[in-house]
Write a structure and sequence with these properties.
- It is a single chain.
- This protein is an alpha/beta fold.
- The chain has one domain: NAD(P)-binding Rossmann-like Domain (Rossmann fold, 3-Layer(aba) Sandwich).
- It is built from nine helices and nine strands.
- β1, α1 and β2 form a beta-alpha-beta unit.
- It is globular and about 50 Å long.
- The mean pLDDT is 95.
- Belongs to the short-chain dehydrogenases/reductases (SDR) family.
- InterPro entries: NAD(P)-bd_dom_sf (IPR036291), Sc_DH/Rdtase_CS (IPR020904), SDR_DHRS6-like (IPR051122), SDR_fam (IPR002347).
- This is SDR family oxidoreductase.
């Protein structure tokens, strides 16, 4: 097992990529703390993981709240397990709207969930990572590298996630804490499938992907597993695209 006895927090774990990461980490031996704002869906995920014989707990969590991070999630994890080895900042939202119509209110909401949560999560877990090191994985996006039409606030927030990951990687390398940005491409999830498979948009998106297919949540979970494991012990400060070649084109 590649994560045996590791303690891992995964945010946004009630569906899609976060759900796949939580399941994958648990199967690889991690004690998984799955968090999400959607309590009912999260409870189902935890039940499924535990039914497979793995260790996991679920915490309802507003990732944009400092108090939720410090007073609820991290306090519970440290009180239960005594340490935090891995943090996956996966929770995020999209916002498709013409650039000139995006309000300050929308920007604040997108930044609070997509970027502030990453900063708060790192601040909360860093004091509790072992002297032997740890791994922080922040979910960015191909939009941070190539830009995405009609999603200015989202694109800007994900660009900032990549940048703060590089900065934290340099700051905490001396403590053997690795910080990397994982960069998903067009991934089929329950949320994205109606859009990505619509007759209007599918030819465009598939035409941009050199491999000619969409990715799956499991593709992202496999990459997250590599970055979380000791197999990537000398890798920090990178943006790892999992995009079928989108950003190479």
């Amino acid at each position: 097992m590649r994560l045996k006895n590791k303690v891992a927090i995964v945010t946004g774990a009630a569906s899609g990529i976060g759900e796949a990461i939580a399941h994958t980490f648990a199967r690889e031996g991690a004690k998984v703390i799955a968090t999400d704002i959607q309590g009912d869906k999260l409870a189902e995920i935890i039940d499924n993981i535990q039914a497979e014989g793995h260790e996991a707990i679920g915490l309802v969590h507003d990732v944009s709240s400092r108090e939720n991070w410090f007073g609820h999630v991290v306090a519970t994890v440290v009180g239960t397990f005594g340490k935090i080895d891995i943090l996956v900042n996966n929770a995020g939202i999209s916002a498709s709207q013409p650039f000139e119509l995006q309000s300050e209110e929308l920007w604040r909401k997108v930044y609070a969930i997509n970027l502030n949560s990453v900063m708060l999560g790192m601040q909360a877990v860093l004091p509790h990572m072992p002297e032997t090191g740890g791994s922080i994985i922040n979910l960015s996006s191909i939009a941070a590298i190539t830009g995405t039409a009609g999603a200015g606030a989202y694109t800007a927030s994900k660009g900032a996630v990549s940048a703060i990951s590089r900065a934290a990687a340099v700051d905490y390398a001396v403590r053997k804490i690795r910080v990397n940005a994982l960069v998903p491409g067009n991934i089929l999830t329950a949320m994205s499938e109606p859009f990505l498979t619509s007759p209007e948009y599918q030819p465009y998106f598939l035409g941009r992907i050199p491999m000619g297919t969409y990715g799956s949540s499991q593709d992202i979970a496999n990459a997250a597993l590599f970055l979380a494991s000791d197999e990537s012990s000398y890798i920090t400060g990178i943006e790892l695209p999992v995009d079928g070649g989108w950003t190479a084109k």
